[in-house]
Amino acid sequence: MNASTALLTDHYELTMIQAALESGHADRPCVFETFARRLPDGRRYGVVAGTGRFLEMLRDFRFGEEEIGFLRDRGIVDGRTLDWLADYRFSGDIWGYAEGEVYFPGSPLLVVESTFAEGVVLETLVLSTLNHDSAVASAASRMTAAAGERPCIEMGSRRTHEGSAVAAARAAYIAGFGSTSNLEAGRRHGIPTAGTAAHSYTLLHDDERDAFANQLASLGLSTTLLVDTYDVRAAVELAVELAGPALGGVRLDSGDLVGQAQQVRAQLDALGAHGTKIVVTSDLDEHAIAALAASPVDRYGVGTNVVTGSGHPAAGLVYKLVSRESDAGVMEGVAKASKDKASVGGRKFALRRRSADGVAQAEIIGIDERPQDDGDDRELLVRLVERGEVVAPTDAGTARAHHAMARAELPREALRLSHGEAAIPTTYLDDWS
Amino acid sequence: MNASTALLTDHYELTMIQAALESGHADRPCVFETFARRLPDGRRYGVVAGTGRFLEMLRDFRFGEEEIGFLRDRGIVDGRTLDWLADYRFSGDIWGYAEGEVYFPGSPLLVVESTFAEGVVLETLVLSTLNHDSAVASAASRMTAAAGERPCIEMGSRRTHEGSAVAAARAAYIAGFGSTSNLEAGRRHGIPTAGTAAHSYTLLHDDERDAFANQLASLGLSTTLLVDTYDVRAAVELAVELAGPALGGVRLDSGDLVGQAQQVRAQLDALGAHGTKIVVTSDLDEHAIAALAASPVDRYGVGTNVVTGSGHPAAGLVYKLVSRESDAGVMEGVAKASKDKASVGGRKFALRRRSADGVAQAEIIGIDERPQDDGDDRELLVRLVERGEVVAPTDAGTARAHHAMARAELPREALRLSHGEAAIPTTYLDDWS
Fold first, then answer.
1. Residue B327 to residue A206, Cβ atoms within 8 A
2. Cβ contact A80:A21 at 8 Å
3. B257, B264 in Cβ contact below 8 A?
4. Which residue from B minimizes the CA distance to A81?
5. Any chain A CB within 8 A of the CB of B19?
């Protein structure tokens, strides 16, 4: 049993349960939905990530003695609510987009079918994991699309919270990054790890020759030498002098990368080091990666911009009650009225409409009934939890494969980096039929 | 003993240790420094946070059997390095700005004095905690400054990673927020928690009357009712009808807050509910808070923008080797040459120069020697770790008090929200003397 995740929750979820227990409505059958009202400004698609982590934490979402003791000592909820929480175990059903799936405004990323109290208490855990991981994966997918066949290395751990760093490495991997610098992500999620040396290593030594020679002796000729501590040209010459043409790589971490990559490639080739790779790592984002597309660069190391969602650190997902049983005992769609935060009531179903040659054309969302499949459509909601038991894969590898498949279906213009609208329209069944 | 934090580390730190062990330089006395080259665009000061969390995690930074097993299985470093890591325990000294202190470009926020290998392996843990928490605290401090005497409630857990959420609540509290929605932050860091109900609670009930009546019955008249699910005017009238003038508060979460706050205040007063508070919570940032300064608002609930640093989710702090013993056995300042990422070599000392009436005037940084105190200066570097033992307080309350003191010293213009330069200049001793 891992540590309880039950207090990764907002205060109001528990006070709502207390009030609903009082009103006798706590056990009403309900449907909660997670969706984005819109994509971040200019983005053409989003990428769902965090689902697997949420499902794993759901298993540990139990109010144990310590958690109950804290809530009692603080007087956060009354005794009846504490008793209810002590017995809590999610027993409902959850459907959702497979982790790694692409999404659009209104896509029902998670559909939670449970009693009010069982579902409302999961709001924060659902949104924390999905908002963070989807923000990272959505940015990372644009970067790997811009990088094409060249591998991207996630190395942003130092620019985000130590726990986010592990989740960000996982989300970037789902979106096509090949490796991470983060060792805990390697251990916990099985992601390949990578890294060689920082400027401090070179500065530790009395000269660059000493630093490079020792790194080669210890890590082997396939290592990557950081060549911009002093003078790049001199460092590249020294690197090849010491390692020979078998040198694995050189890394550039500052300056004009486009200009430097050309010069360094020419220099390496002139020295016979045709196989030596050039790794660039300075403040890259998807636009910088795209700007280097014609440069002789072999690998991109991305830090701050991938772990902070490249300008959009939260995906803007919300978790809303969309349906509940009425006094009359029938399920009714419900929605908040306010204009700027409107939502669509009702239990959603979703298909990705595809052309006969498999290109995504529209997000078809049915309200309270499944839309008619036209033969080429792909079902988007898969069963994640069945009567409280997790029934879907939660590993990053499965999600990574799913993302590659789902992104490949998008129309070509979806991968453009310029500001644009969602790549395909979201169509509610009412409008469509 | 808590879970090990040792793998919250980048791959390259361990390969650097391996190479330094090979070269015989692993034990060289070194000084590493954490600083920001610049403040985020337009900001006038930064706020140090995360120091206490770093110090607590430093205690658990040990490579146990599981961690060593992972590194061995993956072949990340060689056997000699694994043996060294298995024995690792930080045994050096760390100095730093007290948590909650304000800072400026070049301020030496952390000064780590240790061997190369002992210090280099802490880079990621230091930067993850300080970059994240300082980004949140720096944004939060602008918000509490704009809010003045009105309390700010941190409620952004749903918009950031579940672990970041807890740290963000702590950082916001340090910067003057009064409470958080996050229960784990309440338990772990002793922060007051707050919250009442979401729209889903109102929508659960067949009508708003039923929802409000039950909430009042369960949570008492001092509760805050969310009045914008359907029609604000009708909801406020209903709220006072049911609760009477003793109603604790009403919450507005959408629409034109400036206009609505005026109308709702007038309506409450007309109904005799003069003591009922107005809480606003829709997409607030420091600018929205400032825009509400003349509105009859009593409390601000801030979500996304505080936990994501209000546009700057990472503080831009770096961790650099600035001094090390040479072959000749003397400490020498070292620095990378590249123009866009220059650093200043040498062990730093720092004073806040103050006028006779206690207003901050300059950040005085001495290189390799302590600057002369002019009598009104305040020493900025305090001892955090002495020969491996944490000797400074790590709690949020102490940091919160420190921040209030340090911010109060700043010149008035430091608290302006408009784009500006750092509120006081950073002056290196060489220039000053």
1. yes
2. yes
3. no
4. B218
5. yes
Cα distance between residue A347 and residue A334, in whole Å? 10
Identify the band that residue A429 occupies on the pLDDT scale cut at 50, 70 and 90: confident
pLDDT in tens, A243-288: 999 999 999 998 899 999 999 999 999 999 999 999 999 899 999 9
Q: How far is A378 from chain B, CA to nearest CA, in Å?
A: 30
Closest by Cβ to A70, choosing from B9, B164, B187? B187
The number of C-alpha atoms within 13 Å of A358 and in the hemisphere containing its C-beta is: 5
Three-state DSSP class for A288?
A: helix
Chain A positions touching B200 (Cβ under 8 A) are: 16, 32, 116, 120, 123, 320-321
d(CA A357, nearest CA chain B) in Å? 38
* B contact test, residue of A65, A158, A210, A215 with most B CBs within 10 A: A158
pLDDT, tens digit, for every residue of B199-232?
Answer: 999 999 999 999 999 999 999 999 999 999 999 9
Q: Where are the alpha helices (DSSP H) in B32-100?
A: 51-59, 65-74, 79-86
Chain A residue with the nearest C-alpha to that of B193: A11
Query: Which residues does chain B have within 8 Å of residue A25's beta carbon, measured at their own beta carbons?
Result: 204-205, 214
- pLDDT range class, residue B431, cuts 50, 70, 90: very low
CA proximity to A154, closest of A183, A127, A181, A124 = A181
Pairing of strands B331-333, B224-226: unpaired
To the nearest whole angstrom, how far is the Cα of A359 from the nearest Cα of chain B?
32
Q: How many CB pairs (< 8 A) connect A and B?
A: 339
Q: Look over chain A and give the mean of its residue pLDDT values, rounded to a whole number.
A: 96
Whether this model's ipTM surpasses 0.90 comes out as yes
Per-chain mean pLDDT for chain B: 96
Over 60: is that where the pLDDT of B433 sits? no
> Quick check: B156 and B168 in contact, CB under 8 A?
yes
Chain position carrying tokens 């002019």: B374
- Most B CBs within 10 Å, among A155, A204, A205, A307, to test the B interface: A204
Span A93-108, average pLDDT: 98
Domains of chain A: 11-136+312-432 (3.20.140.10), 150-306 (3.20.20.70)
Angle CA(B184)–CA(B9)–CA(B325) in degrees, nearest 5? 125
pLDDT-derived band of residue B432, with 50, 70 and 90 as boundaries? very low
Residue B119 has pLDDT above 90, yes or no: yes
